[in-house]
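Thread: sanity check for a docking pose with nicotinamide-adenine-dinucleotide

Original post by kr_44:
Hi all, I'm comparing my docking run against an independent structure prediction. Below are the sequence and the ligand SMILES. Could someone generate the full complex and paste the structure tokens? I mainly care about where the ligand ends up relative to the chain.
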Amino acid sequence: MKQLDRRSFLKTASAVSAGTMLAPKLFALGAFEEEPARPVSANDHIQIALIGAGWRGQLDTGEAVQVPGVKLVAAADCYDGRLVHCKELWGKDVFTTRDYNEILARKDIDAVIIGTPDHWHMKAATDAMKAGKDVYCEKPMIHLYSDGPAMIETARSTNRIIQIGSQRVSSILYAKAKELLASGAIGKLNMVQAHWDRNSSLGAWNYDIPLDASTQTCDWPRFEGTAPHIPWNPEHFFQWRKWKAYGSGVAGDLFVHLFSGTHFITGSHGPTRAMATGGLRFWNDGRDVYDVMLGLFDYEMGFNLALRVNFVDGGEESEGLTFTGSEGTMQIGENYVSVTRVPRETEPGLMVGNYADAMQKEMTEAYRKKYPITHSDNPPATGFEKFVAPDGYSDTYDHFKNFFASVRTRKPVVEDAVFGFRAAGAALLSNMSIEKGQVVNWDPEAMKVVQS
Ligand SMILES: NC(=O)c1ccc[n+]([C@@H]2O[C@H](COP(=O)([O-])OP(=O)(O)OC[C@H]3O[C@@H](n4cnc5c(N)ncnc54)[C@H](O)[C@@H]3O)[C@@H](O)[C@H]2O)c1
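Reply from moderator J.T.:
Ran it for you. Here is the predicted complex with nicotinamide-adenine-dinucleotide included:
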């Protein structure tokens, strides 16, 4: 209302002209970085193994072996059909086993990719590092808060490289977003909103169960690990995300990506306060985690974060982040980052239309005296810019390229265990807030829940 009044009354010469406002600028982000033309020497080769050869593990490995000088030599999984498929994908010489310890005992393996369900991340990662292997561990890094310090300490004491698999941290889109925010493109950041909405059965984790699933083809006790024992259950095996015993709900599966992105772009270490709510609104299929979750988080850097995951959405499936600053917004979609600049007003405006005519006139004159109409030669920057990733761009490939560069140089990775714990620790605050029915506090520097 105020704006309408102000515009209709004063028609002040705003520094922003409609022409500049709407002229969009489109940029293609740098294409794939060329790989060095030199051949990778024999002793520069990195031999890897996959632990947990399901959907993500296979996808990760497919990207990893495209990095020059990287070869898969072994795979471990609890379902035989996936081990068979590993040989189909990467050759019959790939050594396969149900027991990852057989892989860790091999001297010819430099690094492992861990693509198990969340409840195995800490154990598999620490076992691998203690066996002298570098580790690429899928997100969320932790299942329990105690996993974080154990993984950080093991990486330190064994001097192993560990990278966590939130691939957005290596994305050219997120690098551009970080650069834009730091350059002041949207002014002072005051709020981040991020969402992940789905409207499909697969989106709600109802993955297909193979026809031969049984206790003969699946190593159920090994899969269960430290999870509370229940009789063989193929749904729990193949759709484990639906149960807290193995996964961490939408917070661990999806919020964690949004935290990793937010932390990378802002440079923040994490929220100090969190509250979340949600419910099981649609997928009443025996799962014990919510299909709708909303979380609110306070950051000491001076912004708030609002997250939403919705598996019941009647609209299009979508994910994205919106950074709102004092002078514009920045949006990240699946293959682009865009900035809309709306600089702050240069005068406060006047809302006098409901006063007597004489008073309106008097106030308008006084206002114009105080804020004379100026025509600036240098209007504040405004407009819309969009940066688009090249077709086929894969941030997972870039994340692996960064990981293997660190494996070779022993230089720090882009997403170490501290970063991974800060993202996953923040995400799991949502589950804790819902369980306790209250606001929960977190110390992002010490990476500890603050008891209230
Ligand atoms: N970075 C991403 O974008 C992304 C995307 C999807 C999944 N993920 C993560 O990847 C992980 C795996 O997810 P998924 O969808 O591939 O699950 P999945 O069920 O398809 O695969 C997990 C595999 O791990 C195996 N497994 C379980 N315990 C094991 C053990 N002790 N030793 C060896 N293998 C074991 C299972 O048999 C199964 O085949 C999860 O932590 C998930 O959060 C990350």
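Residues 76 and 404 are 21 Å apart (CA to CA). Hope that helps with the comparison, let us know if your pose agrees.
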